[in-house]
Amino acid sequence: MTQSITIPSASDFHLHLRQGDMMRMVTPKVAEGGVSLAYIMPNLQPPVTKTEQALSYKEELQALAPDVTFYMTLYLSPDLTVDEVRKASKAGIAGVKSYPRGVTTNSDSGIENYEIYYPVFKAMEEEGMVLNLHGEIPSDLDNDVCVMNAEEKFLPQLEKIHRAFPNLKIVLEHATTSAAVDLVKRLGDTVACSITVHHLQLIVDDWAGQAHHFCKPVAKYPHDRQALREVVASGHPRFFLGTDSAPHPSHVKETACAHAGVFTTPLVLPYLCKIFEDIGCLDKLENFACHFGRSFYGLKQKEGFQDKKVTLVKQENVVVPATYEISSAQPQLGKVVPFLANKDVGWKIVENFC
Amino acid sequence: MTQSITIPSASDFHLHLRQGDMMRMVTPKVAEGGVSLAYIMPNLQPPVTKTEQALSYKEELQALAPDVTFYMTLYLSPDLTVDEVRKASKAGIAGVKSYPRGVTTNSDSGIENYEIYYPVFKAMEEEGMVLNLHGEIPSDLDNDVCVMNAEEKFLPQLEKIHRAFPNLKIVLEHATTSAAVDLVKRLGDTVACSITVHHLQLIVDDWAGQAHHFCKPVAKYPHDRQALREVVASGHPRFFLGTDSAPHPSHVKETACAHAGVFTTPLVLPYLCKIFEDIGCLDKLENFACHFGRSFYGLKQKEGFQDKKVTLVKQENVVVPATYEISSAQPQLGKVVPFLANKDVGWKIVENFC
Lengths: 354, 354
Fold this sequence. Notes:
By secondary structure, the first copy, chain A, is α/β, with parallel strands linked by helices. Chain A has one domain (10-307): Alpha-Beta Barrel (TIM Barrel). Helix content of chain A is 29%, strand content 17%. Chain A is built from 11 helices and 13 strands. Chain A has helices at residues 20-26, 29-32, 51-64, 82-90, 118-127, 155-164, 178-186, 204-207, 222-233, 268-279, 285-297; strands spanning 4-8, 10-15, 35-40, 69-75, 95-98, 130-133, 169-172, 191-195, 239-241, 309-314, 324-325, 335-336, 347-352. In chain A, α4 packs parallel to α5 (118-127). Chain A is globular and about 55 Å long. Chain A starts with a strand and ends with a strand. At the A-B interface, α8 and α9 of A face α8 and α9 of B. Chains A, B: Pathway: Pyrimidine metabolism; UMP biosynthesis via de novo pathway; (S)-dihydroorotate from bicarbonate: step 3/3.
């Protein structure tokens, strides 16, 4: 008996596609993973802070992946004005991403005190733009803050912003803790969580000494993973896919100070089939990966892409590639090691975008 | 003004000196770090389970470091008999090391249920041998056990063994949590903790993506580090130095799956001066590094070594070497990266073993 599943092409509401050669390698792989709508993070160098930058970046991405609908974000910083927010909204930019200072890749321009942004949040609320929060506070030894509790200690900030702007759509990105799940469930319909592929699979042990599993926020305790698994298994509509797929060449992972990020783009749906099957909720995959995010954001794919389907078949020896070369013309740029490299993921896309 | 400190040569009550070329590189560095008494772990390949093995290993080490007094341990396994314990004790072997199965380097022969060892513990108690516990239970997702709470969840085992054998000297090795500190303080005079150099310095953030700071047990929360710092600053006599210095070639650290271990042997006393100075308890260093451990164990240095002194001076630009080559004749064996490589440790041994 062959087990197969056919669902609409997926939406990834948290994606890093980088720049230059890395962008050229990674972007065509979005569709390969079964994803047709991608919400793109703005933490480039320099960060995407202006509408024109976002549109120009979008154009680059669309040329590389014509079948994918891209939605763009701006990087929240003190330079972001209310006028720029309104302009961005009119140009179809869907959200603004906030990074706490120093917490993750290219977040040095990030922020700590949200009140200075209240005029911007007000404009976003009026425009229907989404606030995407990297929900961690910076480590602080005097106050017992470290990577293991940085998300939980951020949650009062999320609640405070929500109370101040109850109609502002807020996504707590890449949730990793039971505390985050509990809070977001408790808050109103305007607050949601994105959940990555890898945080449904990993715990702290998996990144202890394992650079390719090291990401920010770090994976936490078994009970935290269980809370993520339970909320997706429950079919809660405010918890949806955002992979946070973040490619780095292996030479900046397998080194003394590894860069943070897990690369899942090329195999998003096969990974998810495997994990949802393990959890025992394969029937919840379609809503999690395809519908809940679009519905929360109110975003559609571009014309002609509404009915694309992806079919996956369960089979043995679907081995994840060991690496992806960044550029065959420039081998010195290195290779990216994907999530679960060399492992049997057990599911394969047999028809894509049909 | 020159700041200097003169103390007796130190005792390291938890040391890995390996075998073969690594042993030949590392062992002479024990004295370089200001250490003249070393208590050697038995997790070789194969583990040291017999008196003869331990004595033959001791002979190898003494030939490489004639100024150092070595005390040996046996590896606790179901093969260890009461007769072997008595024989070992008569031969001067000072302790038996217990590793939970699968928790750290070469611990596959380790154990989980201590009651099967009660006859051995009884004999050790009678002989005055020390039980050295690697205090972690194996990770278990169903019971929320992971590397972050594996020590705390082990503590009931420690208490149970102590209650069964109140006169058995037990050392909870390389304590990393405030919970461990609290329990050991609460238990009687026969229970002690060794504390490493690196656990007085690191927290979880420091090994997140940083392979050279990855060790088992992993460094924990800021409040845990604070508890370790406070107990050494308090001058508690049952908390003393055991470095757990564990060299690995950099190619098995800077890779996808890093080996666990931090290498501190060549600079033990300079590191400790720096850390104790930062904590503000340089006056407590001598007891922690030189006296408390020997006193708990009741061990002496060999004849003629009682009065050796080490003088350290505080100065700038005492830069920790980037690497130590394992064998100049065999460069392919690689190099070991020491703790705080390329960093200014701020203290230098100017007279050693005088």
